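User: Some background: our group keeps a shared notebook of sequences we're curious about, and every so often someone picks one and asks for a predicted structure to add to the entry. Today it's my turn. The entry only has the sequence so far, pasted here. Could you supply the structure so I can complete it?
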Amino acid sequence: MAIKVTIWNEFRHEKSDPAAHALYPDGLHACIKKFLEEDPEIRVRLAALDDPDQGLPDEVLNDTDVLIWWGHMAHGEVSDALVERIRNRVYRNGMGFMPIHSGHHSKPFRAIVGTTGDLTWGREQTGIVWNMCPSHPIAKGIPAQFSLQEEMYGEPFFIPKPDDLIFATWFEDGNLFRGGVTYTRGLGKIFYFHPGHETCPSYHNPYVQQILRNAVHWVAPDASCEICDPGCVSQDHPVFQKN
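Assistant: Of course. Here's the predicted structure to add to the notebook entry:
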């Protein structure tokens, strides 16, 4: 059975910034869709902030196995009601959640993981992404290191202690960043991955593409696990309680 992925994108920069439009003329989410669907086990739909119901009406969200989230300049426009629906879908139904790049400051990531998501940031520069956990399924097929031209993200990164630190990036200015981390919350799995600034070609990089494909498989609910049925566990179970 195919993994049903929804890629949510603000889809603002690509319309207003010529450099972003040149790299991603149909939107960052459309670029990600194209390479994810190279995997025959992944089926993708696109959603954007300016779509009806902010792109995620119940019929879409409730039919999503994995939600990928790209946000940057309009975090505050996302409705609190939608955030709570996303959080409940992760905690209670096991939907996988993948915030990417500035998704560290998104309202859903903060609500799901329990964090400010604050960090240090700076200019676009060369970064070396180090594979810190090569045995993890998300790191399958990824070399010990690879280079990217990216917006600098650096420590301190105000997140809870990750379950796994899979990738860390060293930037040419000397900053270090825990840029690929996992969490489990309720029944759901979360993977945050930092590359994806709108004027950087990161989503054209084959290693970034492979990491995101791997991550979709890892965060997706286990179809063989009956606990993923929202009716099979009492809503009073401790895994559903807020942090």
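Suggested note for the entry: Helices lie at 13-16, 18-23, 28-36, 58-61, 80-93, 107-114, 206-219. Residues 133 and 166 are 5 Å apart (CA to CA).
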